[in-house]
Design brief:
Layout (H helix, E strand, L loop, with lengths): L2 H22 L9 E8 L5 E8 L3 H13 L1 H9 L9 E6 L3 H19 L4 E2 L2 H9 L3 E6 L5 H16 L4 E6 L17 E2 L12 E5 L19 E6 L10 E4 L6 H11 L6 H14 L10 H11 L5 H9 L4 H13 L1 E3 L4 E6 L1 H7 L9 H6 L6 E9 L2 E8 L5 H6 L4 E2 L3 E6 L3 H20 L1
Parallel strand pairs: 2-3, 4-10, 5-6, 5-8, 6-7, 8-9, 9-10, 12-13
Antiparallel strand pairs: 1-2, 11-12, 13-14, 14-16, 15-16
Length: about 450
C-alpha cells in the first residue's frame, strides 16, 4: 500500500473511532452536539487534525471545543488500544470552518522546523557537555541505525557513567536489535528496540545521541524525539551538518568511545570491567585494532586505562576480529569472487545482491567489515563494496588510504564518515550506483594526480 493510502486509512479509522466516542465515550458536561466532518493526517503521521461541526450559539460552540481539546489525550489513549502503529498520532480538534487557517498554521509549523534545522550546530566543550548531562534527570540514549562496535560500545559505556552520576531513569533505545557479533557486550541484551512491548514509558527530558550528529541517521527512533527534549550529541566524525543540535564533536578522537572514556577520566569516575569492555570494543573496532591512521598516542593512553581493569583481552579480540559466522563466510566468498580492479589497480570493488542474502539466509549485519579485504590488496587506495538493499536503493561502504578522503567524497551523496572509512545509502539501483560512484572516484583520483 502506498504511503498516501496508509495515511488515508489511518485518518478514516481515527474518524470512525472518534465518532463512536462522541456518542458514548466522552462524558464532559460541557460537550454539546458535535459531528466529525473529517480527519487530516500530517505528512509524518504525528498529528491527526480532527475537523468537527459545532452546534449551538457561540458560547455553546466554544464550550464544546474546549471539552474536545481537553479530552484529546484520553481520545488518543482509546485509539491506541486498537491502532497498531509505533507512534500514535497526537489528536488536535478544529472547527470545520477553520480549514484554511489550519493549513496556514501547518505551513508555519513546517517553516519553523525548517528554520531550526538550518541553524548552526552548537559546539560545546567537554566540561559544558558533562554539566549538561549532569543536569538531566530522565534520559534516552541512542545511536545511528545499523550500529557498529563504536556506536554500541559508546552507548553502553555512557550508560555506566550516567548511573554513577546518580541517573536511574535511563532508556537505551535503538531502531533494531543489537547485531549478533556484539551481543556479548555487557548489558547489550538490555538495550530496547522500537518493537519491544515492555519499552519503558518514561517522560524523558534529554536525548543523548552518540557516534552520529544527526537525528536523520538514528532511523525511526527519531520519532521519539520531541521539540521539548534537550538533545545532546557526542560524536567524532568530520562531516557535521547545520541542524540546530548541540554537543561535543571532535574528529581528532579515533572513536566516539574515546570521548566517553575521557568523560570517565575527567570526572574521576573509575572504570569497572564491564564499562571498560564496552569502551575497548568501541575504540578497537574503529581503529581496526589500533592499525588505522586515526590511531594516535591518546588512543593508546586510553586503552591502557581500560586494560587496567584486567578484562580478557584475547577473548574480546577474538570475538571482534577473529570470528565470523557461516553467513559472513559465504558472503565473503561472493565478494572476493566478484572483486575487480579499476583505475590502474588503485580502486577495487565488489557487490552483493538481494538474491545473495536470500540464498545464504544472511542479513545486512553480516556485511560487517567485508569491505576491508578490498582495501588490503597491494596497490589499492580505495576499496568499495556495493550492497543492494532493494531495486531502488544501494548501500555503499568505502575504505581508503590517507590520500583519498572517503567521508568528504560520500557527503555529496548523502553519506559520510571518516577520511579512511565511510558509508551511506544511495537512492539508486545497484548497477547505476556502481557506474556513478566508480566514475566519480576515478575523476577524484585523476584530478588529484594532475
Amino acid at each position: 500500500m502506498t504511503s498516501k493510502g496508509r495515511t488515508e486509512r489511518v485518518a478514516e479509522y481515527i474518524r470512525e473511532e472518534i465518532a463512536k466516542l462522541l456518542i458514548d465515550g466522552i462524558k464532559d458536561p460541557r460537550l454539546g452536539f458535535v459531528s466529525v466532518m473529517g480527519v487530516k493526517m500530517s505528512k509524518d503521521l504525528r498529528f491527526a487534525n480532527v475537523y468537527v461541526s459545532l452546534y449551538g450559539d457561540e458560547k455553546q460552540r466554544k464550550s464544546s471545543l474546549i471539552a474536545l481539546q481537553n479530552s484529546a489525550g484520553w481520545v488518543k489513549a482509546m485509539i491506541a488500544q486498537n491502532l497498531h502503529m509505533r507512534y500514535i498520532p497526537e489528536i488536535r480538534f478544529f472547527p470545520d470552518d477553520s480549514l484554511d487557517r489550519v493549513y496556514a498554521m501547518e505551513e508555519v509549523f513546517s517553516m519553523i522546523h525548517q528554520h531550526k534545522t538550518e541553524q548552526p550546530f552548537i559546539k560545546l566543550d567537554l566540561p559544558t557537555l558533562i554539566d549538561e548531562m549532569k543536569s538531566s534527570d530522565r534520559i534516552m540514549l541512542t545511536t545511528h541505525e545499523r550500529p557498529d562496535g563504536d556506536a554500541l560500545g559508546s552507548l553502553l559505556g555512557l550508560w555506566y557513567w550516567l548511573e554513577v552520576q546518580g541517573k536511574n531513569q535511563i532508556v537505551p533505545l535503538i531502531e533494531r536489535p543489537v547485531p549478533k557479533m556484539y551481543s556479548f557486550l555487557p548489558r547489550a541484551g538490555k538495550i530496547y528496540t522500537l518493537e519491544d512491548e515492555n519499552l519503558p514509558r518514561i517522560d524523558v527530558d534529554t536525548v543523548i545521541v552518540v557516534d552520529v550528529a544527526s537525528l536523520e541517521r538514528i532511523g525511526e527512533v527519531a520519532e521519539k524525539v520531541q521539540t521539548k527534549h534537550k538533545v545532546l550529541v557526542i560524536d567524532h566524525h568530520e562531516t557535521l551538518e547545520n541542524n540546530g543540535l548541540m554537543g561535543f564533536v571532535d574528529p581528532s578522537y579515533a572513536a566516539c568511545g574515546e570521548i566517553i572514556s575521557e568523560i570517565f577520566i575527567n570526572t574521576n569516575t573509575p572504570f569497572i570491567q564491564e564499562s571498560a569492555i564496552c569502551l575497548y570494543v568501541a575504540q578497537a573496532t574503529d581503529t581496526g585494532g589500533y592499525r588505522f591512521s586515526n590511531t594516535n598516542a591518546r588512543s593508546h593512553r586510553i586503552a591502557s586505562h581500560l586494560m587496567e581493569t584486567h578484562f580478557d583481552l584475547e577473548e574480546i579480540n577474538t570475538r571482534i576480529f577473529d570470528t565470523i559466522t557461516i553467513s559472513q563466510f559465504e558472503l565473503m566468498k561472493r565478494v572476493l569472487s566478484r572483486a575487480k580492479l579499476e583505475v590502474q589497480g588503485k580502486v577495487s570493488y565488489s557487490y552483493l545482491t538481494q538474491k545473495d542474502f536470500e540464498q545464504i539466509g544472511a542479513s545486512l549485519e553480516d556485511c560487517h567489515n567485508l569491505v576491508n579485504t578490498l582495501r588490503e590488496i597491494d596497490g589499492v587506495s580505495v576499496g568499495v563494496l556495493f550492497t543492494e538493499i532493494n531495486s531502488e536503493k544501494t548501500k555503499i561502504s568505502i575504505r581508503s588510504r590517507k590520500n583519498f578522503h572517503a567521508g568528504d567524497f560520500l557527503t555529496q551523496y548523502g553519506g559520510g564518515g571518516h577520511r579512511c572509512a565511510a558509508g551511506g545509502t544511495l537512492n539508486m539501483p545497484l548497477e547505476y550506483a556502481k557506474e556513478v560512484i566508480l566514475q566519480a572516484i576515478e575523476r577524484e583520483i585523476n584530478g588529484k594526480e594532475k
